[in-house]
Amino acid sequence: MIELRDLCYVRLGTRDLDGAERFTTEIVGLQPIERSRDRLKLRSNHRHHSLCYFAGDPRDHQIGVELTDWAGLEAAMDELTTAGIECERGSAEECADRAVEDFFWFHDPTGNRIELVARPHEANRRFFPSRDAGL
Hints:
Layout: E1 4-14, H1 17-28, E2 31-35, E3 39-43, E4 51-55, E5 61-67, H2 73-82, E6 88-89, H3 92-98, E7 100-107, E8 113-120
């Protein structure tokens, strides 16, 4: 059995990064971390980011889940592959974009993309929400 530690991040496609930023900072109270032409990263805890909006189809979304054993990435891939689930390793560029050391992804039986993550990066500063959101 693959042992999981914690939900690391959620990645959501959007056609409106400005609207996503207003909503997540002014309404939800997340802290903006990085903004580029096609990415918006926010955080709600000690991690580098916990939510990433990217320019794209709103139906495109992924969740990243941290493995308990960071050295167990290969074993987890093997276990899923043996169960008939196709897995694909993340590239170095994708790892940098997600602020993790390594990951692989697969689709669950309902079509959702799940990313199993090893060594997610933590922020180098405390979390300060844009308003008191009870987080």
